[in-house]
Design brief:
Length: 159
């Protein structure tokens, strides 16, 4: 089996995108990196996120050996804010900047018609992808992702 990660004890992740009403970059990054407890409560633009994060045992948060290292959103100010609250050390201005700096990418947007465009640079680089739901919203895009899967490309999406 092919390994896509150089060091399984140091998995570097990047998270991309933010759409109106979808705060996944805040919550998913916090689950990997933990978060600034005071700022998340005061500044997160999605009140439900700190509400459910605070229900978890803070000391048990995180995934050993994996960290969110980069964030890139359509607007830099959004990425900087996510980075500050979710303790992400690097902000990128363009998604392609993550290539060679992370082992895998999470595309955290929920607009299926954008996912091929957002995924293309990482597919070309052979990087593993997790794409938020909906993976796509039309048959042509589904065919594209199905072919990738059938060819063994490391891609995952879930509901």
């Amino acid at each position: 089996m092919t390994s896509f990660v150089t060091d399984p004890h140091n998995i570097r992740l990047g998270i991309l995108g933010m759409t109106e009403g979808n705060g996944h970059p805040y919550s998913w990054s916090a689950m990997f990196n933990r978060f600034d407890r005071e700022l998340m409560q005061k500044e997160c633009p999605f009140p439900a996120i700190p509400d459910y994060l605070y229900l978890q045992d803070y000391e048990k948060m995180g995934i050993p050996g994996a960290r969110m290292e980069y964030v890139c959103c359509d607007h830099r100010r959004d990425a900087e804010h996510v980075a500050k609250l979710s303790l992400i050390p690097h902000v990128a201005d363009h998604p392609e900047e993550l290539i060679g700096k992370v082992d895998a990418v999470i595309i955290a947007t929920d607009i299926g018609s954008e996912h091929i465009r957002r995924a293309r640079p990482f597919i070309a680089a052979g990087m593993p992808l997790f794409i938020d739901k909906p993976l796509c919203d039309n048959a042509a895009d589904l065919d594209f992702f199905t072919r990738l899967f059938e060819e063994g490309y490391p891609i995952l999406s879930s509901s």
